[in-house]
Design a protein that fits this description.
Number of domains of chain A: 1
Number of domains of chain B: 2
CATH topology of chain A: Nuclear Transport Factor 2, Chain: A
Number of strands of chain A: 7
Number of helices of chain A: 3
Distance between the termini of chain B: 94 Å
Strand content of chain A: 15-25%
Structural class of chain A: alpha+beta
Low-confidence stretches of chain A: 249-263
Helix content of chain B: 25-40%
Helix content of chain A: 25-40%
Radius of gyration of chain A: 32 Å
Distance between the termini of chain A: 120 Å
Oligomer: heterodimer
Strand content of chain B: 25-35%
Shape of chain A: elongated
CATH class of chain A: Alpha Beta
Amino acid sequence: MLKRTGKYLGSLRRLALALVVASLCVPLAHAQGSADLKDLEQQLNGLGDRIQRLQDLTEVEILQHSYGYFVDKAQWHYLADLFADDATLEIGGKGVFLGKARVFEYMHVGLGPIGPRDGLLIDHQQFQCLPTIEPDGVTAHIRCIAFVMSSGGWGHNYYEDTFVKVNGVWRFKTLHGPFNMYSGYKVGWLDNTILNTFPEKWPPWPDLPPTVIYLTYPNYYIEPYHYPNPVTGKPMPPPSPRAGGEAFGRALERISTTRAGET
Amino acid sequence: MTFPATAPRLALSLFLGLAVWTSGFAKDDAARIAALKARVEAIAAETTYVESVTKIQRLGRAFGYYTDKGYFGEAADLFTDEATFQWGVDGIYKGKPRIRELLTRHGGGSLTDGPGLPFGRLNLRMQLQPLVTVAADGNSAHARWREWGLLGEYKKSATWDDAIIEDDYVRQDGVWKIAARRYYLNFEAPYQGGWAALKPVAGAWPSAIARDFPPDAPAASLYQPFPSVFVPPYDFAGTLTAIQSRAPFTAPQRAADELGRLEALADAKQLQLARTHSVRAIENLQAMYGYYIDKGQWKRAATLFSHDGSYEFGQSGVYIGNAHIERALSLMGPRGLEAGQLNNYVMVQPIINIAADNRTAKARWRSDVQLARAGKGRWGGGIYENEYVNDNGTWKFTKLHYYVTFWGDYDAGWAAKPIPMDPQSTTILADKPPTVVYQSFPKLQIVPFHYDHPVTGKPMPGEHE
C-alpha cells in the first residue's frame, strides 16, 4: 500500500512537475501573444493615422467645393459658416477682412443680397484642387482654381487657402484668392481683360491692406505654391524677370483694359 | 504530507486557470491572431493603394499649376528620366530635357530663362476629371485626364483647347512619377467662332512647334482632330478596379477579450478606409461616365447604372433601367456621334458622401458642357445630384439627375442668348414625369443639397436675409 502510495505520489509529483513547467510555459506563450497584440495595435493605429489623412483630404475638398456652390447662389450665411470665427478673407485686390462676420459682410454688402437673382449668373466653379494635410493633423492647405462663368464673361483665379480642424471639424482659416484673368464674353481674353479690384473700389472697406500688390492678365503674377515639387521635393524657385516672370508694371502703354464692372 | 498531494492540485488549477485565461493563445486564439495579422496586412495594402491614387491625382494637378505659369522645368521634373511624351500626332519626345523644351515651346516660354511667362502670354491648361487605377503590384499606375485650356497672346490670339491625356506612372524609390504621356489634342479653336467653326483637317496636321522641334520618334497612332470624332484609347487594363472598393461587410460581434477589442479596432479602421477608397471609386465612376458620354458611347455609359437605376436630365423625365437609360442617352445623338458633333461633359467639383455602412453614397457634381451640332456651338452648365450603390464591391449609379443651370449660344453667349431646356421626348418616352419642374437661365434656382452643412451639420433647405 505504502509502496503503491509512494508510487502514486511519485507519479503525482511527476505530473505536478509537468504541470508546473507547463504553467510556466503558458505565460511565456501569453507574453509572446501580448507582444504580437501590442505590435498589431500599434500597426493599426499607425494605419489609422494614414486613413484619417485620406479622409481629411476629402473633407477639406468638400469645404472648398461647397464654398463654390454657395457663391453660385449667393448663399452668404452658409458660406460664412464655413469659416472659423477668427478666419481671414482676401480676394483680388480688396485687402484683408478679419473674422467670420466680415467674411459675411464682404459677400453680402459687396456682392449683393442673399439668394440667386434671375438673369445674374455668378457660377464660381472649383477646379483642380490640390489639398495637403499637415503632420499635425489639424492644419491643411489647398491650391485650387476658380473658373468663373458669369453674366459678364470669364474669370480664372487661384486659391491658396488654409484650414483648421477644431473639435474634429475642418473650417476655413484663411481664404486667399488672387485674381488671374477676368474677361468679357464678346472677344474673351483677346484684349478685353478686366483690372484687379482695389480696397476702396466698393464697400465694405477692408480691415487691412492687401498682403501683396500684383497685376492680373496680361501681366504675370504667380501665387506661391504651399507645397514643394511632389517628385523632387524642392521648394518653388522664384520666377525669373528675364523670362517675363516679374512683369509688374511693365508695358502699361500696351494695355487698354476695362475696369471691373465697366464691361 | 499534504504538500505532495496539494502541489499537483495547485499546479493543475494554475494550469487550467491560465489555459482558460489564455484560451485563444493556446488553440483558436492563435488562429484569431493569424487572421488579425492578415487583416492588418490587407488594410496596409489598401491604404497604400488609396494613397497612391491620391498622389497620382496630386501629380496631375501639380503639372497643371506648373505649366500655367511657365514653370516648365518643374513640370518636366514630374516625369522619369526616360519618360516619353507623345504630343497629338506630332510624335514622341523622350527624356526630361526634351519634355521640358516641348512644354516650353507649346507654352510660349523662354528657352533660355525661366521660370515665368512673357507679358501677355496665357497658357491655362486645366487638368480635370482624373480616372486613376493602380496596378496590383502597387508600382505602376494609369490615369486618363481631360485638359481644358485657355490659351492666347494678348491682342493677338485667344484660343480654347481640348485634349485627353493618357498617362502611365511608375513608383521609383517610393515616389510616383509620370513614365509615359500620350496627349491627344482634340482641338485648338479660336475664341471667335469657337470649335463649331472648325473645318475638317485633311491629311497630316503636325503642329507648327513640331516643324521647328522635331520629335524623337513618330506617334504610335495617327488620328484626325475635331470635327472628326476620335476616341483616344482607354489604355488600361482593370477598368473595373477603377470603380471598386470593399464590398459591404458586417463585422460580427467581437469577443469581450483583449483580442476582441483589437478585432473591433480593425473593423473600424477597415470601414473608415473602405469609405475613403469608395470616394476615389466614385470619382472614377463619374469620370468614366463623362468620358463615355463625350464620345456617344451610350451602351458603356448605361452599364454603369444598377439594373433599377434611374436617369433624369433637365426636364427629360425619369428613365429607369439600363436599356431604357441607353435609349434616353441616345437622345443626345447617334451612337459614336457624327463628325462635327461635340458632346463634352466636364465632370468637376465633387462632394461625395459615403453612407456610414459603405453600402450607398450620394454626390453633387458640376458639369460644364461644350456642344456642337449642325455647325452651331453651345455652352452649358449644371449640377448633378446623384446616388450610388456598392454592388458587391463595384460602385454603380442608382440615380443620376442633372439639373440644368443654363444653356447658351456660343457666339452670343448665355447672357445674351440663353436657350431653354428641351421638353420631354415624344419619341423615347420617359417612365416618369420630371421630379422637379423648373426653368433654366435666365431663371435661377438652388439645386437641393443632399448633404448637411459641413461645419454646422444642419440641413440646407435655403436661407433668408
